[in-house]
């Protein structure tokens, strides 16, 4: 289960930030190995305060483990041909990092593995970065003799869409029935630098497809927008920004909003701090009543969706109806100049050989 991860304790914040700024697939910096530690050190105190404010760390590891354990148990029933199944977590920036997970898999004698991204929508900055890291570890011989296949995206899977839609409905139900229909559904996803968007990254398209699928399931019961959060630094990022959108809706006289995280599968700092403690608070000051749709966390509908996605993948790959990677994964961004992307895709297409 691949994801970015987050510091489980406040003390892990610095290492998390350092790993994040060291990742050239996410943030390409000149003299990365020198600059990254400096930026991480400078930003640590402020981010530590944010983790403090959400209870002393990110719950992403706890939720990912819980989702993984329950998914694996379901998978034993749904696809007994490949049982027993075991879920491992490999985070890109926090523990357990890929090398730690590789050691654990080696000790367990794993021979067959699925790299299952926990980002529903594909971006080369997120899933692509995790796959590049896995590829590097594989090439370095840290994960030997494992036959790999990849689940690289699933942003319109009906189970995922259903789980999000149910959480939206629960949030909507908090508004009085008489005015419920006027509530704006504000879908929020992590933004991307325009340099990434403009090299042909598929993320914006895929997040939009998730939103369209959720709205279809909700029978377009409410007006909605997709907006983007968590931009950092002075360069241009995909907009409109979530905070600005809330202020704009207040200016237009809107009084009710449901905020919906659409690109995260569990709570972490972007939901618990940024959405709940920053944006929602600010919107309330502007006279808007805001409720946030819950993150997927321990949703049984969502965990069943994960198991269904994995079972269908295992069936297709085992019966030869699909290769180790999807057709879409083989295509590099038209503007990609990162040689590792090409090598990684070819390596996984050969089953990690
Ligand atoms: Fe998208 Fe390399 S940046 S494939």
From TrEMBL:
<protein>
    <recommendedName>
        <fullName>Ferrochelatase</fullName>
        <ecNumber>4.98.1.1</ecNumber>
    </recommendedName>
</protein>
<keyword id="KW-0472">Membrane</keyword>
<keyword id="KW-0408">Iron</keyword>
<dbReference type="GO" id="GO:0006783">
    <property type="term" value="P:heme biosynthetic process"/>
</dbReference>
<keyword id="KW-0627">Porphyrin biosynthesis</keyword>
<dbReference type="GO" id="GO:0004325">
    <property type="term" value="F:ferrochelatase activity"/>
</dbReference>
<dbReference type="InterPro" id="IPR001015">
    <property type="entry name" value="Ferrochelatase"/>
</dbReference>
<keyword id="KW-0350">Heme biosynthesis</keyword>
<dbReference type="GO" id="GO:0005743">
    <property type="term" value="C:mitochondrial inner membrane"/>
</dbReference>
<dbReference type="InterPro" id="IPR033644">
    <property type="entry name" value="Ferrochelatase_C"/>
</dbReference>
<comment type="similarity">
    <text>Belongs to the ferrochelatase family.</text>
</comment>
<keyword id="KW-0456">Lyase</keyword>
<dbReference type="InterPro" id="IPR033659">
    <property type="entry name" value="Ferrochelatase_N"/>
</dbReference>
<comment type="pathway">
    <text>Porphyrin-containing compound metabolism; protoheme biosynthesis; protoheme from protoporphyrin-IX: step 1/1.</text>
</comment>
<dbReference type="Pfam" id="PF00762">
    <property type="entry name" value="Ferrochelatase"/>
</dbReference>
<keyword id="KW-0999">Mitochondrion inner membrane</keyword>
<comment type="function">
    <text>Catalyzes the ferrous insertion into protoporphyrin IX.</text>
</comment>
<dbReference type="InterPro" id="IPR019772">
    <property type="entry name" value="Ferrochelatase_AS"/>
</dbReference>
<keyword id="KW-0496">Mitochondrion</keyword>
């Amino acid at each position: 289960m691949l994801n970015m991860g987050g510091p489980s304790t406040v003390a892990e914040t610095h290492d998390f930030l350092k790993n994040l700024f060291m990742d050239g697939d996410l943030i390409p910096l000149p003299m990365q190995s020198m600059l990254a530690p400096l930026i991480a050190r400078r930003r640590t105190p402020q981010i530590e305060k944010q983790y403090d404010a959400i209870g002393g760390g990110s719950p992403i590891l706890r939720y990912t483990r819980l989702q993984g354990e329950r998914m694996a148990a379901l998978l034993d029933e749904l696809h007994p041909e490949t049982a027993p199944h075991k879920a491992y977590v490999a985070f890109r920036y926090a523990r357990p990092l890929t090398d730690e997970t590789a050691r654990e898999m080696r000790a367990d004698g794993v021979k067959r593995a699925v790299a299952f991204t926990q980002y529903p929508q594909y971006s080369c900055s997120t899933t692509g970065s995790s796959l590049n890291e896995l590829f590097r570890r594989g090439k370095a011989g840290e994960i030997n003799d494992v036959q790999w296949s990849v689940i690289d995206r699933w942003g319109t899977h009906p189970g995922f869409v259903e789980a999000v839609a149910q959480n939206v409905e629960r949030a909507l139900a908090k508004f009085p029935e008489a005015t419920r229909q006027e509530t704006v559904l504000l879908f929020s996803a992590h933004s991307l630098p325009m340099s990434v968007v403009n090299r042909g990254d598929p993320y914006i398209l895929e997040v939009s497809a998730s939103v369209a699928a959720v709205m279809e399931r909700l029978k377009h019961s409410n007006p909605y927008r997709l907006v983007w959060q968590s931009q950092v630094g002075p360069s241009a990022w995909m907009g409109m920004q979530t905070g600005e959108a809330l202020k704009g809706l207040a200016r237009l006289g809107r009084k009710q909003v449901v905020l919906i995280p659409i690109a995260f599968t569990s709570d972490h700092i972007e939901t618990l701090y940024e959405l709940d403690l920053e944006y929602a608070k600010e919107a309330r000051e502007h006279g808007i009543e805001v409720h946030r749709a819950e993150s997927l966390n321990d949703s049984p509908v969502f965990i069943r969706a994960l198991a269904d996605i994995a079972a269908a993948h295992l069936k297709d790959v085992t019966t030869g109806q699909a290769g180790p990677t999807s057709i879409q994964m083989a295509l590099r961004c038209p503007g990609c100049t990162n040689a590792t992307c090409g090598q990684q895709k070819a390596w996984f297409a050969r089953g990690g050989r």
